[in-house]
Amino acid sequence: MFTKRSFGLVILFVLFCSSGFGMVYPIGDMAVKPTTSFDSGNGYVITQGFLATRVMDGVEKTHLGVDLATYNNASGGDVYAIDAGIVADVQYSQATTGWGTMVRIRHQLPDGTVYYSQSAHLLYGSVTVSKDSTVVIGQVIGQVGSTGYSTNPHLDFEVKRLDNDGCGYLPDSDCSNDSVDNYYDPLDFIEAHNQPSTVARYSNGALNQPILDCFNRNGGADHFGQPFNNNGGGVYVHDWYSLDGSNFVTIQDFYHPGYDFYSAIIESSAMSAAFELKAGFRWYYMDQLAGYGPSTLNAPLCDERAFVDSNGLFGPANQIYVRQDFQTGKTLIWNLATGIQMVDTPSDGFHIALGGQESIDIWTSSVSYNQVILNWLLPFAGSSVVYRNDWPIHTTTDQLLTDNTALSNTTYRYYVQATSSDNGVVMRSPVLEVTTPANPNRYTITAQLRSGDYDTVDVEIVENTLYPYAPFHCFVRNDGAESYKVAATSWSFSGLQTGVSHTFYCEALTASDLVLGRSNVVTVFVPVPPTVTPTPTWTPRPDPNVPFKIVDGMHLTVIGDIFRVSFTAEAYQTVTLDRFSAKGYIQDPWGDQYSRSWPAVQFSPPLVMNPGDR
Predict the structure, then answer these.
(1) Closest listed residue to residue 432, CA positions, set 519, 372, 483
(2) 592: closest CA among 399, 385, 453?
(3) Which of 190, 370, 422, 612 gives a 20 to 30 Å CA spacing to 151?
(4) How do the residues of the chain divide into helix, strand and coil, expressed in percent and rounded to 5?
(5) Per CATH, is 443-526 categorized as 2.60.40.10?
(6) Are 520 and 445 in contact (CB under 8 A)?
(7) Residue among 538, 541, 502 nearest 522 (CA)
(8) Domain 361-435, what architecture?
(9) pLDDT digit string (tens) for 392-426?
(10) Is 100 left (phi over 0), alpha (psi -120 to 50) or beta?
């Protein structure tokens, strides 16, 4: 497989830069800013603005986001990602408290600023993304609903600096460390960054027509994604010099977060055109040549193309290669067996035509959650290179590929590039989008408060057809409390903080602690133990030796681990007390009885009680 790993890359985790296409508004007409009037044309109106105040529970509080709704509080409208990014958190909830169903996305501006957009009260079951998945600008992430603490369908939308739920309003005891300074006015923030496209533009706004032509010729934003700050030149078209300063290329870098795909467009002065540098060839140019790509290769003379080495110029005859020629007389070639090689451009008379005719039929004969079977039909005898998400994954002279590396619930873009056996024709199929179904196997846990216990939650794996051996390497996490990694299928979390919610989920791990996958997430509220006043379980019998009686029984108050007992005594006769003690048992609401003895209470001076005194 032709992947990053096959080149020995050190893969870094990166944040997604702002698209360079501006941002969009999260609801309604994405290009129109909502206002307090329906005349804005967005379709949604601000029902509660940023930093608006309202009295809640007797306290004036400040709203940290913006509420958006239709004129008739309709649910079901699409909610969009305002920019490209990575999903930081998804909460699926039908509860009538908190955010309900919510999505939070991590973004990064071209200047490196990280920020988060949060969409809450979404319609339960409408979320289309998952934690750690990538999103592109304008992608539907869910629908307007009324889950959580909400009286009518609306979108509660926040833009903030911190990756946390927040409380929606301040002040709030649950968010005592939060501050209004951590939040942006969401709609003003989008408006301020809603700038024109930077595709094929220099920083002064001038247009580079060859780069724009290449961008449009190869599929536009669907293929390239958005301009990306890769080598210090920003998101604009710029001149990139080799480390020794001997030469430079005019370049613009791109990144598509939906496919985790990096590419660049480089202008070729020799061809009065610009060409794409992508995938492994881009890695070789940028990284393997260690900053000397502009001097060693300079600009490409064509987009990469597949061909058959019928004369055995680079190895055994009739091998299939991907090839791209460069201005310095060098050519990069690749096939599955040899990887990438840089060779002198052969003078074999073979010319790779610009563009490529799309006349190859391509279709799927089978799609399952872990397999895609592709078929295609060539109009000539030849060989093919199969691309998935713009990475070549297979070379063949057949017209069928079984892709067993597909993941469930994932969209892939396949196309085939073919060369006739006499190298006379180069063709490329249309792009075929394939979405694999969800994995029918499941990995499910339950978590519930233990009956009769106010600080213990029991967690159990109830279904595990997805990772049948994972319970022996399972890491059950509890946010804010303990974590367990034991050879079992059930766990108990004790000593939990009361009065708050705790989140539980299980991660299936390999023996070397690599995460295979995560179970469903279960949230359990651990209540504060209530004050208990049980029915009196004993009353002293009148006795000549006992000069007082209990007149209204015994009261038990439980505060945390403290048991406080009180009762009322009435004297039969005059009596002087210097101390008092009690002994008996308590029956709790669950029927359990506990023996209790209370130490003597000393009275100094002695307590004098007359008949009828209490």
Answers:
(1) 372
(2) 453
(3) 190
(4) 10, 45, 45
(5) yes
(6) yes
(7) 502
(8) Sandwich (2.60)
(9) 888 888 889 999 888 777 888 898 888 776 655 56
(10) left
Identify the three-state secondary structure at position 577: strand
Who has greater pLDDT, 365 or 506?
365
SS3 496: coil
In the DSSP assignment, the letter for residue 260 is T
Q: Write the burial class of residue 408 (CB in 10 Å: 0-12 exposed, 13-18 middle, 19+ buried).
A: middle
Helix or strand (DSSP H, E) at 281: helix 279-283
Domain segments of the chain as ranges: 38-192, 209-344, 361-435, 443-526, 548-609
pLDDT at 538 over 60: no
Residue of higher predicted confidence among 194 and 533 = 194
- Preceding peptide of 534 cis, ω within 30°: no
pTM over 0.90: no
Q: Please name which of 408, 507, 503 lies closest in space to residue 93, comparing C-alpha atoms.
A: 503
Pairing outcome for strands 500-509 and 522-526: antiparallel
CA 211 to the chain's CA centroid: 33
Q: What is the mean pLDDT of residues 52-62?
A: 82
Length of the chain: 614
Q: Is the CB of residue 568 less than 8 Å from the CB of residue 550?
A: yes
pLDDT digits (tens, 9 = 90+) for 373-389: 999 887 777 788 888 88
User: Is 160:116 a contact under the CB 8 Å cutoff?
Assistant: yes
Identify whether the C-beta of residue 93 lies closer than 8 Å to the C-beta of residue 100.
Answer: yes
| Phi, psi (rounded to 5 degrees) for 226 | -135, 160
- Provide the pLDDT confidence category of residue 588 given band limits of 50, 70 and 90: low
Q: Are strands 85-91 and 134-135 parallel, antiparallel or unpaired?
A: antiparallel
Q: How far apart are CA 208 and CA 214, in angstroms?
A: 10
Please list, in sequence order, all residues whose beta carbon lies within 8 angstroms of the beta carbon of residue 376, skipping any fewer than 6 positions away: 360, 361, 362, 363, 384, 399, 400, 416, 429
Q: Would the pLDDT of 21 be above 60? A: no
Domains 361-435 and 443-526 share a fold: yes
Class of domain 38-192: mainly beta
> Please, what is the average pLDDT of the chain?
77
Q: Which range in 321-325, 346-350, 514-518, 542-546 is most confidently predicted, on average pLDDT?
A: 321-325
d(CA 40, CA 241): 47
Per residue, the 3-state secondary structure of 510-541, as one string, reads CCCCCEEEECCCEEEEECCCCCCCCCCCCCCC
Q: What is the pLDDT of residue 301?
A: 87
